[in-house]
Design brief:
UDP-N-acetylmuramoyl-L-alanine:D-glutamate ligase; 20 helices; 45% helix; elongated; binds adenosine-5'-triphosphate; TIM Barrel; binds 2-(4-methyl-thiazol-5-yl)-ethanol
Length: 538
């Protein structure tokens, strides 16, 4: 007989030690159930057996009123004494096969899993569900010396579960602000498998208003699940809305880009750019040239305060400065649902850059990642293209479209691969842009400026969306607006302006080209874009 199906959506792990002063555990529990907790695990690290049984018994009594099942952490004896739905065990607790013999065929057994090997074992041993973690650093568990998985590490584990029927929740450092990032960012790269729920301790238990805290978390999980249901059969959409369904044509895309050019001029969004020292001034100038407004703020407190006011944020770690500011700026962009463009300059060139990229990506979910062939190759863990400092070396990828599509799925972000031809994907559609000038290879920071313009158009796309729609109709969307079109617009506007600049008789070399480029970005009209755009849908 199959075991009972649990709803893992909002899985509360209890922790009496986190209660705010004066808050009663049972009162807090009942409020969290009223707020939408779907499953409760009683976790008592310090209680002796008698006390544990008593807490579990009363917990079950309250949960029964709401038809919410209870699991017991680690202790098979407590589970048997109270008659709960099952147990949750860790890697160093009673081995799963032995636990199964002890508790019988009908009880649920969940297992904590920290990596793909442990996941494979959990599948072999027949776990009912796995708890994947820690996703992020957490105050409730000592994870010193172990790497946090981040949303993408969680996604790699989820890939292994596809087709097994084993359910999965993520645990560790999950809070309301990073929940949308986790849900979207952990969609598994190969199979598009997603989490069945999240396990939360302190966001609920430490709250003075556990009902409200649970309601807020539940709303995000439910709308994520609704959005996934609506997307069944179409796996190209992740953390942002996009118009990738059938009927795409060059005309349609160019028309949308033209529309965004007008929005940018009307709205003048503020674009915060944490970028490198080499390009900072040029990046601020190209921002102004297309009608947006630059601010190059890096201080952690300052970027925090600015975040609600900006249209988009760019993080470019070309000279690897301001890591703390980058962490805060990216996290706040996620919290405030602002598009976040990540330019991991020369990420493949050194281990420091690779580690920094991973560290940043464990803090936030980018909306768009842009890089040259070496950078995108490093992010995709491909060895096809080597890096030479900030540049790519060699001939490029054999199949660039496949690389961007796969990386977009893996990272749950729009990917932009630059070079003589640019490739853009949301994990489903791949666009190829063949505009540009060879002079772009002869000025420094052309890739960085392209990233800046993508951020400007991401802000325009968000504004356009919000002008037409109710804000946050779907709470699970990390960012609103069509980010595939935004990335296309940034690349098209930059490369077309570069063609017009290069054609000018007064342009004699990289120096005159550099200033002509800013002028031509300023003068570029939607009509010229219509005439010159060389976009293909692959
Ligand atoms: N040979 C070329 N012909 C046309 N366009 C090009 C050429 N090389 C680069 N581009 C364009 O220049 C922009 C920057 O791309 P590139 O791949 O050179 O970035 P990058 O290597 O990151 O640059 P940087 O490190 O200087 O910032 C893109 O918009 C791309 O389309
Ligand atoms: C030259 C250079 N060095 C670090 S960042 C940068 C700008 C181009 O990426």
């Amino acid at each position: 007989m199959p075991r009972i199906q649990l709803d893992y959506s909002l899985y509360l792990v209890t922790g009496r030690e986190f209660l705010p002063p004066g808050k009663d555990y049972y009162e807090s529990l009942e409020e969290s159930l009223q707020g939408g907790v779907t499953l409760v695990q009683v976790r008592e690290k310090d209680a002796d057996t008698g006390e544990f049984i008593e807490v579990a018994r009363r917990t079950k009594q309250i949960c029964d009123k709401y038809n919410v099942p209870v699991l017991i952490n680690d202790r098979i004896d407590v589970h048997l004494a109270v008659g709960t739905a099952g147990i949750h065990i860790g890697q160093t607790d009673c081995p799963l096969p032995l636990a199964r013999t002890l508790i019988g065929p009908d009880a649920i057994i969940g297992l904590s899993v920290r990596n793909t090997d442990e996941c494979k074992r959990a599948i072999e041993q027949g776990a009912d569900y796995i708890g994947i973690g820690s996703v992020w650093p957490t105050g409730s568990k000592d994870i010193k010396g172990r790497k946090c998985l981040g949303p993408d590490g969680t996604g790699e584990i989820l890939d292994l579960l596809d087709g097994t029927g084993i359910q999965a929740v993520a645990i560790g450092g999950i809070h309301l602000p990073n929940l949308p990032q986790l849900l979207h960012g952990s969609i598994s790269p190969k199979t598009s498998n997603a989490l069945d729920g999240v396990a939360v301790i302190s966001d609920i238990v430490a709250s003075h208003q556990p009902r409200k805290a649970s309601e807020a978390l539940r709303e995000i999980i439910d709308s994520f699940k609704r959005a996934r249901k609506g997307l069944e059969g179409h796996k190209g959409l992740f953390g942002s809305t996009s118009s990738v369904s059938g009927g795409l044509s060059r005309e349609y895309l160019v028309e949308k880009v033209q529309g965004l050019m007008r929005v940018l001029e009307q709205e003048t969004p503020l674009i915060n750019q944490l970028t490198n020292k080499v390009v900072m001034n040029d990046s601020a100038n190209v921002t102004l040239a297309v009608g947006a407004s630059p601010i190059m703020s890096t201080n952690p407190r300052d970027v925090y305060d600015l975040s609600p006011a900006i249209g988009a944020c760019l993080i470019n770690f070309g000279t690897v400065d301001d890591k703390e500011g980058m962490k805060v700026a990216g996290r706040q962009a996620n919290v405030n649902r602002k598009p976040l463009v990540f330019d991991p300059v020369a990420v493949g060139a050194t281990s420091y850059r690779r580690e920094t990229a991973e560290e940043l990506l464990a803090h936030w979910q980018p909306t768009i990642i842009k890089g040259n062939a070496a950078e995108i190759g490093a992010m995709a863990e491909s060895t096809e293209v080597a890096s030479r400092g900030v540049d790519a070396a060699g001939a490029g990828f054999k199949d660039p479209g496949a690389i961007v599509r796969a990386l977009a799925k893996k990272r749950a972000a729009i990917i932009v691969l630059t070079g003589p031809e640019d490739y853009i994907s949301d994990g489903h559609t791949v666009l190829k842009v063949s505009n540009g000038s060879h002079f772009l290879e002869k000025i420094t920071g052309s890739g960085c400026q392209a990233g800046t313009l993508i951020a400007c158009f991401a802000a325009a796309s968000r504004s356009y969306y919000l002008n037409e729609n109710e804000p946050f109709e779907d709470d699970s969307q990390l960012v609103q607006g069509d980010m595939l079109i935004a990335a296309l617009a940034g690349i098209l506007i930059y490369t077309i302006a570069s063609e017009v600049a290069a054609d000018r008789p007064d342009v004699k070399g990289p120096g005159t080209f550099r200033s002509a480029l800013i002028d031509e970005l300023y003068n570029l009209t939607p009509e010229v874009v219509q005439q010159r755009a060389r976009v293909e849908i692959l």
